[in-house]
Amino acid sequence: MEIIPLSYPLLNATTLSLAKPISIAIGHFDGVHRGHQNVVNEAISFAKDTDMLSAVLTFAPHPKEVLGHGDQYYSCLTPFQKKMDLFAQLGVDIVFVMQFDLTFAAMLPNEFVDEVLRPLGVKHAVIGFDFTFGSKGLGNAEVLRELGKPDIAVSIIEPLFEDGTKVSSTYTRDSLEQGNLEMVSLLLGRSYEVVGTVVHGDGRGRTIGFPTANLELHDRYVSPRLGVYAVIAWIDGIPHGGVLNHGMKPTFNKADVKPVMEAHLFNFDEDIYGKEMKVQFIAFIRPEQKFNAIADLIAQIAADSATAKELLGEL
Fold first, then answer.
1. For 105, which of 2, 179, 206, 251 is 20 to 30 Å away at the CA?
2. Alpha-carbon distance 312 to 315, whole Å?
């Protein structure tokens, strides 16, 4: 899969020299959830049937981050590299990454079609039913269909529902922040994951018999609910079952510290400081709590570990 950065005005479009016309899915696609996958898969399927190249047009940073419509968009479900990996797994040929800035945001709907889509060689565009584009969101799915005539066909994908609620990035974020990992996995079609580097903590876990790997995240992820989780941690491509606490460590710390992620990995005793670790969140076990005695904390960690082992099975 090829990744091509773009900026508006699209000065480098004529230098792309793509061998075939393009079937393109358009959207930010944070999460690449099952609804997003329907949009992308339609572009891929059409490309295969018509001998086109399949593509995605996505935006960086998030449009709402640039336009100031919500601090929550400074965090993401799928950082850039993870999103690219997911597009590649789906079978996309090309990803165009458009720099989203105020100049691009001020573009009129017809300019988007005439000065971005047509120069890229787009002959088929796929969008979600609620897609908007152009200055102040003046363009919508039907506007794109009209502006695309006669040379750009437009497919509009209807929403996907789960338990009566539309599958969306917002629903996924809300479910994650509530600790509803079963719903998160259902919406994404996979487990939620974060990636970071193992760093030195305060070393207290080892002194109480439960050494932990402290994770310094690489990106600004949507934060799961504070609490204890059954997880699978991947180190050097090898999965390890474990139990992870995401929180403020109230038994030891004051309330003004930032949340941390620390994982106790089962049957594991290697020096992994400085290594990259990917953590997949499998199940929420309990909220974080403060213990009055260290012995009570040790007993609870042992109970949490037993629960996690039961949930994870063979790992």
1. 2
2. 6
Say if residue 184 is exposed, middle or buried (CB neighbours under 10 Å; 0-12, 13-18, 19+): buried
Q: Locate 189 and state its tokens.
A: 């079609």
For residues 279 and 193, the answer to whether their CB atoms sit within 8 Å is: yes
| Judgement on whether residues 125 and 63 belong to the same structural domain of the protein | yes
Report how far residue 102's alpha carbon sits from residue 100's, in angstroms, rounded to the nearest whole number.
7
Residue 272: CB atoms within 10 A of its CB come to 16
Q: What is the pLDDT of residues 195-243, one digit of tens each?
A: 999 998 766 666 666 788 999 999 999 999 999 999 999 999 999 999 9
The domain total for the chain is: 2
**CA–CA separation, 215 vs 221, rounded Å?**
13
Q: What is the pTM of this model?
A: 0.90
pLDDT tens-digit map of 77-126:
999 999 999 999 999 999 999 998 888 989 999 999 999 999 999 999 99
**What is the CATH classification number for the domain harbouring 78?**
3.40.50.620
Structural domain containing residue 259: 191-312
Helix (H, G, I), strand (E, B) or coil at 61: coil
Question: Which CATH number do you get for residue 206?
Answer: 2.40.30.30
Is the peptide bond between 211 and the residue preceding it cis, with omega within 30 degrees of 0? no
